[in-house]
Amino acid sequence: MVNTLTIAKRQFRSYFNGPVAYIVIGVVLTLLGVFFWNTFFLFGRATVREMFTLLPIFLILAAPAMTMGLIAEEKRTGTIELLITMPVRDAEVIVGKFLGVLGLYAVLLLLTLPYPMSVSTLGHLDWGPVWSGYFGLLLQGGAMLAIGLLASSWTDNQLVALFLGAAICFAFWIVDRFLPFLPTAAASVFEWLSFDYHFRSMARGVIDTRDVVYFVSIIGFALAMAFRSLESRRWR
User: Fold this and answer.
1) Which of 94, 110, 161, 222 is least surrounded, with the fewest CB atoms within 10 Å of its CB?
2) What's this model's pTM, rounded to 2 decimal places?
3) pLDDT at 110
């Protein structure tokens, strides 16, 4: 556990020693501000539902951008070989790096709080759906980050990791858009696989255990696959 937290702290600090954190957070907040406030006054009521619609879309690219160098860059520079030969377990490396990038994502979410706070000054804002929506964003973002970490473990090229992670995240986000064209049996399966399907109820203020289990399962599966990918280097 000590090794995991040490790796997480090192990874979190490293983001702010380079441009990645500032670029990703700056771009996401700018886009969110532009699109959110451009449509806010069209609703005629105090709500941040549109923010919860926009952020998952931006995360399709932002999450892989935050994770693309986690393993890929260390492979490219050769530091991963040093890391895995140290008295640190592969699982500790994977979980530590995931917690580090999750910390960066938590900072991003905290920086979006001025949006609902501003809305609350313009009318009566129901904070219940806001907090459940943030909880859903944390879970969905965590799933996207875990997928991005998995993509980073497959390659030593950060751009390849970025596009792989974004493609997989996009597939999970868009899959339920094809439901009208699918047979009923297949449609229910594809709907259950959709990120948006499980996040939608949280954005409305309803936290269902099945939705929480779904996102936690995606995170666990992606991290387990990343662990296997990293572990396989020991046998090459």
Assistant:
1) 110
2) 0.88
3) 94
